What does this fold into?
Amino acid sequence: MALSAAGALAAPYTPASDDEVVERLPVASDPALRVVESLRRQLASRPQDKALRLDLGERYFAMAMAQGDPRYVGYAMSTIAPLEQSAGDDSRYWLVRGQLQQYSHDFEGALASLKRASELDPQAVEPVAWRAAIHMVQAQYAWSAAECDRLAKIAPGLLAQGCTAYVRATTGQLIPAYEMLSDAVAHARDVAPELMLWVQTRLAEMAVRLQRWGDAERHYRSALAQGVTDQFLLASYADFLLQRGRPQEVLQLLNGWERSDVLLLRLALAGRAVNHPRTGEWLSQLRDRFEAAAKRGDRLHEQEAARWELELEHDAAKALAYAKSNYTKQKEPRDAEVLLRAALAARDPAAAQPALEWLKTSGYEDPVLEAVAGKLGALR
It folds into this structure.
């Protein structure tokens, strides 16, 4: 999740030749783009149409989530901005506003907006689901579990079950959570592709932690088979492939995804592993983007910047600085992992104390993180 002003993603870049591919843009036949363009034209002729503004804002947000292009969030924010004074009693406005705020890591603002959305429409499912997700990012597991319980009352079924399983899998109940969610999927009927993608991705990540590699592959393939573009799924599967020593498949999976910083990092890692001819170009793009973000004070991709410094630049001190800063805002397991790894590389176990404490108190089960934590303990 990230947000920056349109056009501010990177420093200016001049191609070396006319033949160099700078970026592969979505084709004009993309159905999502066609819908957005249609809504944008309608709004130009009906600027006072509140529902239309929210329709367009939702579409922009969905494209940002799918493609990892923060420019769409900037467009969405501009689109709904005129409603700030007139939509105070519209639950949908507060939902969209909260979604955009969480994308920019304004988690407290997002929670307030989503709470307002639920107050206006107590039966609305999305505000509750988003609050549960934000609490997970902040490692507030009891609060997330409470939101899952609320979800079960208004949306019984796979969504609520997935919510609860995700919390339990993060708090010391990995095997029963995996088995519970697997059973729920097996008995679910008529599940929306977006929900099935999310559930199968969660199951894949649980299977990775259980080192059930075949099951993880099956879940990832099922998620991809839903036919829904999702940056988070692509990043998660790419990390799995890199972990399993399959960088060539990462290059195939992420072909054309250079516009996403999150996926460009994975492309560069895979490219470095196989000496791909475009590796130097990808590294240069990443360097430009992270340097530009640092100059702007943009902290939205610090996790990726930490991995960049640690795994590609091999600068443990810079990696640790990014990882420590990132962990003050985001405390998901992958945020803890990059902090632990950076602290180990920098031989500074004290810097990893917040993540070590989280690993101990949460009950999170992952042999990879436990091994890194053990090495840090040996340095004390």
